[in-house]
Amino acid sequence: MSTSSPRPSTNAPDPLARITSSNVFTEIHPHHVSLCRSEPNYFAMLIASALAILAIWIVTALALIGIGAAILRCFEGDALLMDAFWIGLAASVAFLEIWSLFLRLSAWATLALLCAGILCLLLNRSTIFARVGPGLRRARWAILPYIAIVFYMALRASGPCDHYDTGLYGAPAVRWITAFPAVPGLANLHGRLGFNCSVFLCVAAFDHGPLKALAFHLFTGLTIAAILVPILLAWSRVARNESPTPSDWFYCILAVPMFFLATRSQIVGTPTDEPAAIACLVAAGILFEELCRVRTRNHRGSGARPARLVAATMIFSLAVSFKESTVAFAFLAWCLAFVYICLQHSVVSRRS
Predict the structure, then answer these.
(1) What is the pLDDT of residue 95?
(2) What is the rounded distance in angstroms from the CA atom of residue 115 to the CA atom of residue 311?
(3) Is 237 exposed, middle or buried (0-12, 13-18, 19+ CB in 10 A)?
(4) Is 25 in a helix, a strand, or coil?
(5) pLDDT value at position 148?
(6) What's the mean pLDDT in 237-248?
(7) Which residue from 41, 79, 164, 241 has the highest number of Cβ atoms inside 10 Å of its Cβ?
(8) Between the CA of residue 8 and those of 4, 12, 129, 216, what are the distances in Å?
(9) Could you say which DSSP state residue 13 is in?
(10) Dist. CA 63–CA 78, nearest whole Å
C-alpha cells in the first residue's frame, strides 16, 4: 500500500505545454526514437519543421541585415555584412523595448520590423550584393560545412523545450509581453518576472500568427548560426594560409565553444546565457580585429574603422540587454573603444 499522499488537483496551465504540445517538436534522442518512429510520417514532419526553421532564420537575417546596413550608412568607412546583422538586431531590440513600454508586443511590431528590413535591404541591395559575391567565392569550401551545421541545428531546434528556466519564468514573461505593455510592479507577482531581459522580447516578436508554435525554437539557434559565419571565414583564411591575422586565430579558437553550443547546448526555450555570451564574443572579435588592424603590415598607419568600432559598442550594449551580468566586460570594451575613437579623431585633427 502506498504511503505517499495524493497531489492536489489544479487547473493551472503548464507553462511548457504550448511549447511541447506538437509531435513535430520531439527531441532526436535515443530514448525517444522508439516512440517517434511509431508516429506516421515522423521523419517527413521533422524535415519539414527543420526547413521551416531555416526559412524563418533566412528571412529574419535578411531583414536584420537590411536594417543594419541602413544604420551603417551614417558612418564613414566600410563594414561587413555580419556587422550589419548584429547592428540590425541591436536596433530591433531597442525598437521592441520602446514599443513594449506603451503597447503590448503584437504582430504589428514584428510586421513593422520586417517591412523596414525589407525596404532597407532593397535600398542598399547594391552594397550588400557587392559584398556577398566576393565573400562566397573566397569561402566557397566552407559553404557546405556551414549548411550542414546550420541544418543540424535546425533539427535540434525542432525538439521539445527542456530548458528549466523557460517554464519557471521565461514562457510566462513572454506571455505577459504579448498580452500587455510593461506592467509596473510585475516582479511582486514573481521576482524573476522583474528580470529585464530582451531575449524575451525577441522570442515574443516571433510569437504571433503561423510562427506561434515555433517562437521558442528560433532565436538562440539564429544567434549561433550568425557567429559561425566569421568563424568559418577565419578557418578558411587559416587553411589556405592567406596571411592569417591574430583576429583570425581568435575566431578559430572560438570554434571550440561554438561547436559545443551548436551540438550540445539548449537552444529551445528562452535561454539567456547563450545569446549574451555570443553577443559579447562577436563584439570582442570586432574590437580585437580593429585594434590589431593598425599593426598589420598591409594596414599600418590606417587606423581602425569608425563604423566597426561603433558596431562593437552597439553589440556590447545588446549583450547587456540580454544579460546584465555582462556589463563589466562591456564597460571595459566601451572605454577602450571610446578612447581609441577619441585618440584617432585627435590625430586626424592635428594632421588637418
Answers:
(1) 97
(2) 23
(3) middle
(4) coil
(5) 93
(6) 81
(7) 79
(8) 12, 12, 61, 30
(9) P
(10) 20
Kindly report the backbone phi and psi dihedral angles of residue 77, in degrees, each rounded to the nearest multiple of 5, phi listed first. Answer: 100, 170
Residues 267 and 159: their CA atoms lie apart, in Å, by 9
> Shortest CA distance to 78 belongs to which of 337, 324, 311?
311
Count other Cβ atoms within 10 Å, centred on residue 112: 13
Residue 261 near residue 228, CB atoms below 8 Å: no
Half-sphere exposure of 41 (CA within 13 A, CB side): 5
Closest CA to 26 of 158, 177, 122: 158
- Residue 138 φ/ψ, nearest 5 degrees: -70, -30
Per-residue model confidence (pLDDT) at position 115: 97
Q: Which DSSP category does 166 fall into?
A: I
Cα separation, 33 vs 54, in Å, equals: 23
CA angle 349, 350, 352 (to 5 degrees): 65
Residues ≥6 apart with Cβ < 8 Å to 310: 75
Q: pLDDT tens for residues 156-201?
A: 999 888 899 999 999 999 999 999 999 988 888 888 888 779 999 9
- Secondary structure of residue 327 in the 3-state scheme: helix
Cell of 24: 513535430
3-state secondary structure of 287: helix
